[in-house]
Target: Solute carrier family 66 member 2
Amino acid sequence: MDNRLGLGDEEEGDVGTLWHSLDWLTSCVMVAGGALPYASQYRQILRTKNTDGFSTRVCLVLLVANILRILFWFGKQFEVTLLLQSVVMILTMLVMLNLCCSVQNTNHISTKQHHITDLEPRFFWSWDGFEDYLIFLLAFTLPCAFATLLLLDSSLFVESLGFLAVLTEAMLGLPQLLQNQRNHSTTGMSVNMVLLWMAGDSFKTAYFALKESPLQFLLCGLTQVLVDLAILYQVCLYSQDPWDKLA
Model:
């Protein structure tokens, strides 16, 4: 009897270790998985020396969303995994922006350059210097951090901050969707990136549901999956032969 009980305890310990390992692996995927889709786009830009197919406003959306998410964490401390995910995503977007600036400046023909100090709204987020983007992010982050510090005890402010963060993140694919629509083409956009978006967004939506994360995160994940599907539809739509459409 004692042996059977001992064996049962051992098996229970093994199952506990297995679940702990799976939980750790899931957390690692959540932290690094969001950045993986951009590896494909990074290589494509590096290979073609062309950024036309990639909307840098995707970087804007993710930078703003993840800065707000980090500030939200100070008011409502959710899983550290999601906090680390935001840090990794911010670093990834800065790397993407740096590459885009480098490639665009190499291909730039006009001697006229655009900088944040020009204060021209029509060239917002289309600046030539990487430092211009850093200045904007600093100018955005400092007032938001100060407001969060002042209103940290207000549950209304904290919850609103959370909704704003995930609402912004939910719009991740929208700049790419609009650019594809405007160009009537998905040429230059990495389809692998969008497929990985789809896989990652589906995974994290399930993660949010299982971990009982704040409702804001679940709504964000569902919205992103729908936008990913719309972009994949564009890939099918614009890759078809025009004659086939008439048939």
User: Anything to note?
Assistant: The chain has a mean pLDDT of 82. Residues 2-33 form the longest helix (32 residues). The radius of gyration is 22 Å. DSSP finds ten helices and no strands in the chain.
